[in-house]
Amino acid sequence: MKTFRCFLVLGCFVPWVSCFVLQKSPITPTASTWTSVSSPMVLGAKPTQESATEEAMRLLEKSRALREEIAQQEQERASQRPSTPGSDSSKDSMHSSNQLQSTKSAQINKWAVPNSSVDDDDDSSSPGVEYRLYVDIGREEGTWMEPRWGASGRRIEFTLDVRFQPNQLANMQATQKMVKDNQGGKSSPVQHLESAPLARLRSGFEEMKCQGGSFRIDYSCRPGQSDTLRFFLMVEGITDGDVSIPQGALYFSIPCFGSVAQMSSKGEMPVTVRQMGWHTGFRREESRILGIFKAVPIDGARRKDGF
């Protein structure tokens, strides 16, 4: 019984003594304690080298995105800011606009007849009479072209603007190229014919160089009958399969009524070339049908075609 009491007294006394000693004795941290604190699993611990690199990359991406956003905002402000006549942006925009207009003008002008070279001080000068020729080249019935030429039925179509100059005589070379088939009849003097520098093929995707020519009117000797306008144009020529336009002069003829201003509106008038052959019984230069054409006054043609 005494032994049990002793153990009971010791059991109550030892915890009280332990608490008293701990309160009086400060705890000194050991190396193991600092090691546990410096562990990366503890809140507030320093990041490892790998996590620091990842953080730096994230910050770099954020700064790059911020710079791009600032640059975009500056561009938007500059585009919304009205430009003064003397500013660089105004000059650049005017220069770009002028270049665009020049390009469009060049594209249009290459299909148009250039301004007349006749001296403005000459009282006999005139603006001339302009037409647009719609030419359809291909094999026609009764032609003397070679049998293989255009046998496939392929055609070459083009438009060409021309200007007849009734008050400007043609030069000697152009006069000699006119067909001499009205020896006994009355004809006008051979006069100058201007053309656009290029014929327009396939809606403008292809072109053929042209150099103008000359024209004359063969007057009818019978009252009430129409006269005949004859002219030629010099062309560079072009080939498409088994059909071709030879390089040199293309000859045209169409009814008119006293002047080029009163040309017939009939279509399917002949286009011919002059080539050597035997179809007349002996070898000589002969006319061979190359295709057909019609002539439309330039104002009506521009309204119709849009160029």
Question: Describe it for me?
Answer:
It is a single chain. The chain has 307 residues and is α+β, with helices and mostly antiparallel strands. It has a domain at 129-305. Helices cover 32% and strands 31% of the residues. Strands 1, 2, 3, 4, 5, 6, 7, 10, 11 and 12 form a ten-stranded antiparallel beta sheet that branches. A two-stranded antiparallel sheet has the order 8-9. Strand 5 (198-201) and strand 6 form a beta hairpin. The chain starts with a helix and ends with a helix.
In short:
By secondary structure, the chain is α+β, with helices and mostly antiparallel strands. The chain contains six helices and twelve strands. The longest helix is centred in the first third of the chain and has 32 residues.
Structural class: alpha+beta
What overall form do the CA principal axes indicate? Answer: elongated
Tally of helical runs = 6
If you compute it from the alpha carbons, what radius of gyration comes out, rounded to the nearest whole angstrom?
48 Å
Strand content: 25-35%
Reading the helices and strands in chain order gives: HHHHEEHEEEEEEEEEEH
The poorly predicted ranges are: 1-10, 12-45
Give average pLDDT, whole number: 79
Strands, total number: 12
The CA-CA distance between the termini, in Å, is 132 Å
What portion of residues is helical? Answer: 25-40%
Q: Strand count, sense and closure of the main sheet? A: 10 strands, antiparallel
Keywords: Signal
